[in-house]
Write a structure and sequence with these properties.
It is built from 11 helices and 7 strands. By secondary structure, it is an alpha/beta fold. The chain has a single domain, classed as Rossmann fold. It is globular and about 55 Å long. Bound molecules: nicotinamide-adenine-dinucleotide. GO terms for molecular function: oxidoreductase activity. Belongs to the short-chain dehydrogenases/reductases (SDR) family.
C-alpha cells in the first residue's frame, strides 16, 4: 500500500490485470510492483507456476494455440490491463519463437480486447532488438495480414532471408503490431503500447548469450550511457507506468528502455571497437 494513495499517479487501485510470463524475470518484478501500486487482482498466464503474490494462475503454453484459447476461455470478468510479456529467445527455434513472441501475443490481445473497457490498455514487452523494423516493414505487414496460426508460422519458416535472427524479427513484428493495432483500438478508448528494453539480467539472458554470443551482449551494454546491464526492477516501472492512467494519452508507442543505446547508435556515437 502506498503511503498516500491519492498521490500515486500510477495507482492500480480497483484494476484487474493479466500478466503473461509472470513467473520469472521482468514479469515477476512487474507482479511485485503492481502490488505496491494497490492492484486489485492479478492473473498470471505462464508455462511455469509463479511464486509471487498472484490471485489466479492459469497454466498456459503460449506456443500452443489451443492452450492460448483455453486461457482466453478461462479468464473471466473485466480486464483493465493486459501485460503481454512472456517471451523466448532464438534457441527455441523459428516456430516456437514466433509462436510465443508474436502469434500468441496477438491471439491473446485479439481474444481479450472486447473485455477491456474504455480507459483500459494492452502493454507488450517488445525489445530494442526489434528496432530494425523499418527495413522490413513491407514483409512484416504481409506476415501480420496472415491470421491463421499455422499459415503464419509456415510463412516464417519459408522466408529465412526475411526472418534472419528470429528473436529480433519477432520483436520487430511486435513493434509494428503495436502501431497497426493501436489506431483502431484507441477509437474505442483502449490504448496499445510496448516497452522495448535493452539486455536485462533475467533467466532468459543465458539463452541470449548462447544464441547471440557474449560479445554482442557485452558490447551493447558498453554502448549504453550508464554502462551496466539492466535488471528486472529497471524494466517493471516503465511497464507499470505504461499500463497506468498516467499514460492515458500515450498510444501506439514503442517506448525504448535502453539507457541511451539507440540514441548512441542513431547519432553515430556508438563505439564499435568492442565488436571487433
Ligand atoms: N532479458 C532481456 O534481455 C530482454 C530484453 C528485451 C526484452 N525482453 C523481453 O522481456 C520479456 C520477459 O523476458 P525475461 O527477460 O523476463 O525472461 P524470463 O525467461 O525470466 O521470463 C519469460 C517468462 O515467459 C514464460 N514463458 C516462456 N515460454 C512460455 C510459453 N511457451 N508459454 C507461457 N509462458 C512462457 C517463462 O516461464 C517466464 O516466466 C520477453 O518478452 C523478452 O523477450 C527481455
Amino acid at each position: 500500500m502506498s503511503a498516500n494513495p491519492s498521490s500515486d499517479l500510477c495507482s492500480y487501485a480497483g484494476k484487474r490485470v493479466v500478466v503473461t510470463g509472470g513467473a520469472t524475470g521482468i514479469g515477476s518484478a512487474l507482479v511485485d510492483l503492481l502490488r505496491e501500486h494497490d492492484v486489485e487482482y492479478i492473473t498470471v498466464l505462464d508455462i511455469k507456476e509463479p511464486t509471487g503474490a498472484v490471485d489466479t494462475f492459469i497454466r498456459t503454453d503460449l506456443s500452443d494455440p489451443a492452450s492460448v484459447d483455453a486461457a482466453i476461455a478461462a479468464l473471466t470478468g473485466r480486464i483493465d490491463v493486459l501485460f503481454s510479456n512472456a517471451g523466448v529467445a532464438a534457441n527455441a527455434g523459428v516456430r516456437t519463437c514466433m509462436a510465443v513472441n508474436v502469434a500468441a501475443s496477438r491471439r491473446l490481445a485479439d481474444g481479450l480486447i472486447d473485455r477491456i473497457p474504455e480507459g483500459g490498455t494492452i502493454v507488450f514487452t517488445a525489445s530494442m532488438a526489434g528496432n530494425g523494423w523499418p527495413a522490413k516493414l513491407a514483409e512484416i505487414n504481409t506476415l501480420l495480414d496472415i491470421a491463421d496460426w499455422d499459415e503464419f508460422l509456415d510463412w516464417c519458416e519459408a522466408h529465412p532471408e526475411v526472418v534472419e535472427d528470429v528473436y529480433g524479427f519477432s520483436k520487430m513484428c511486435m513493434q509494428v503490431y503495436v502501431m497497426r493495432s493501436s489506431y483502431a483500438s484507441i477509437r474505442r478508448g483502449v490504448r496499445i503500447n510496448s516497452i522495448c528494453p535493452a539486455p536485462v539480467d533475467t533467466p532468459l539472458m543465458a539463452d541470449f548469450r548462447e544464441s547471440m554470443g557474449d560479445k554482442v551482449i557485452d558490447w551493447s551494454v558498453t554502448v549504453q550511457g550508464n554502462g551496466r546491464m539492466a535488471v528486472a526492477t529497471d524494466i517493471a516501472p516503465p511497464l507499470v507506468f505504461m499500463g497506468s492512467d498516467a499514460a492515458s494519452f500515450i498510444n501506439g508507442v514503442n517506448l525504448l528502455v535502453d539507457a541511451g543505446f539507440t540514441a548512441a547508435m542513431t547519432t553515430g556515437q556508438a563505439d564499435f571497437s568492442g565488436l571487433a
